[in-house]
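My current task is to audit a protein record that another person submitted. Alongside the sequence sits a line of tokens, each denoting a local backbone shape. Where you disagree with what is written, explain briefly why. This is what I was given:
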Amino acid sequence: MLKEILFYILSLIFPSPKQEYVKEYIINTKYLPNEVFWIDDTNVLLTSYGYTLLFNTENRNSSVIDTCENCIYGYDKGFVYCKYINRDIKNKNEFSSTIEIFDINNNLLYSKDIFQTVATIKCTRDSVLLHTNDPDLQQYSYILDTKNDTLTELKDDIKNTQEWISDNQSKKILIGEDKRVWLMRKTK
């Protein structure tokens, strides 16, 4: 107990310095990304439904990755993409969605039929973040664990991520209040 109190007092006296970043430039992209993956400290993957951009933060070169409308790319030990298929159902015993994960060569890595009507939000090899895909239904979020083949409802609301920091913390991608995608660099 004394140790925690001492630590608290020291943290008030010597606060850890806050990371400061400055806007460097706007990344020219057609769509706001749902998710950003830092591939390394230079290259980022900006992904949204039907549009994926691979962007080099040093030379500003970019390439658009051909993406299907119901797909979202991710990066997890290599490129992957998740596809969702929603169906109209006639009774509650039918599956309304299929979630599929593919590698960059279009090899199917995982597939699961589920009862909920969902769309993919974030895609990795080990898990897929899902959200209800029908505005007339109550909105829920789920995590599909592909290693354990389980679907779990998330009790907490998912925060809408607006910034993604590189592994070495020298840069971050930020969706600003102006709804533009900014590259920011850490101040020294």
